Automatic annotation (TrEMBL):
Organism classification: Eukaryota, Viridiplantae, Chlorophyta, core chlorophytes, Trebouxiophyceae
Ranges where the NADP-dependent oxidoreductase domain occurs: 78-305
Pfam family, one: Aldo_ket_red
Site (Lowers pKa of active site Tyr): 124
Keywords: Oxidoreductase
Signal peptide boundaries: none
Residues the record lists as binding substrate: 157
SUPFAM superfamilies: NAD(P)-linked oxidoreductase (SSF51430)
Active site as annotated: 99
Highest taxon of source: Eukaryota
Family affiliation: Belongs to the aldo/keto reductase family.
GO MF terms, alphabetically ordered: oxidoreductase activity
Name this protein carries in UniProt: Aldo keto reductase
């Protein structure tokens, strides 16, 4: 392992990457975990933040944690949230056609002063745009909204209609070949959906973005996905922040319950996408590199499994 060069990545990541450890990604197979420094232009030492990145199967590096913008209202709220996150050091923004705020994400990135290659942008194709032609057209529209010729990661938002799923995935494969998507993947897919997709896919999904937190660990699915898993709801939509186990660990370590959950997710090798429109909470959610959960704490959190789905669950709902 020593002497091996980090994977190629454009822009500032390539200049600042340092390998820090082997990490477990999606709990099954080892993959490289990298770290990099983010510094505001003209800032002092106090403005430097350490971030992690997980290597995808494509070789691309996915910064962690990222900012999710689900239910960040377009027309001001989302724009302000992304702008503040980028100032604080976030370099991964996760949006979707369904969220209706791709335009705000694109504008915030354009106005941030950062180069396009310095920000990892994920978007998702909604099920109303299933089918080859509809998917290609909707992705072109998403890129126009985002103000960029490519997205770093494009996902199918849910398993959708089994009759058109293969053609929709083929549309993403062609988009990837033509450079409109640097990586492609899926979201909310179960094992059966992934197995069915594999029968026709020529490019394997780089990511399966699923709800994961201590109360919903989906161990069988995570194990199946191996290097293709990504958590999108490490905070369980704030439903469990008062849990006594979480609160006890947080109090002992002098951190917030949300930080404990984000740290658990990262130590599992997942890429958490906490959502917040408030700069203070964004900063707190990013300040998770100064502490580490011990093995006993991780085990205590692992024991919280109860099958809690905090909302929509296409993994259980959709036909194969």
């Amino acid at each position: 392992m020593s002497g091996e060069a980090p994977p190629q990545q454009p822009g500032f990541l390539q200049r600042t990457l340092h390998r820090v450890e082997d990490a477990w990604f999606a709990s099954a197979e080892k993959t490289r975990c990298w770290s990099f420094d983010v510094k505001d232009e003209g800032g002092g030492e106090e403005s430097v933040r350490r971030m992690n990145a997980v290597r995808l199967a494509t070789g691309a590096l996915l910064p962690s944690p990222g900012l999710g913008v689900y239910r960040s209202a377009a027309g001001g709220e989302c724009l302000a949230a992304v702008a503040s996150a980028l100032r604080l050091g976030y370099r991964h923004i996760d949006t979707a056609q369904l969220y209706g705020n791709e335009g705000d994400v694109g504008r915030a990135v354009a106005e941030s002063g950062l180069r396009r290659e310095e920000v990892f942008i994920t978007t998702k194709i909604w099920t109303s745009n299933w089918g080859y032609d509809a998917c290609r057209a909707s992705l072109r529209q998403s890129l126009a909204e985002l103000g960029t010729p490519y997205a770093d990661l494009v996902l199918l938002h849910a398993p959708g209609d089994p009759a058109t799923r293969a053609d929709t995935w083929r549309a993403l494969e062609d988009a990837a070949k033509e450079g409109q998507a640097r990586a492609i993947g899926v979201s909310n897919f179960g094992i059966a959906h992934l197995q069915k997709l594999a029968q026709t896919a020529t490019i394997k999904p780089a990511v399966n973005q699923i709800e994961l937190h201590p109360w919903l660990q989906r161990r069988e699915l995570v194990d199946f996905c191996r290097q293709q898993g990504m958590a999108y709801s490490p905070l369980a939509k704030a439903q469990k922040l008062s849990d006594l186990t979480i609160a006890g660990i947080a109090q002992r370590m002098g951190v917030t319950p949300a930080q404990v959950l984000i740290r658990w997710s990262m130590q599992k090798g997942f890429v958490p996408l906490p959502k917040s429109n408030h700069p203070e909470r964004q900063q707190t959610n990013l300040d998770v590199f100064r502490f580490e959960l011990c093995s006993d704490d991780v085990a205590a959190l692992d024991r919280l499994e109860e099958g809690l789905v905090t909302g929509w669950d296409p993994i259980a709902m959709h036909d194969v």
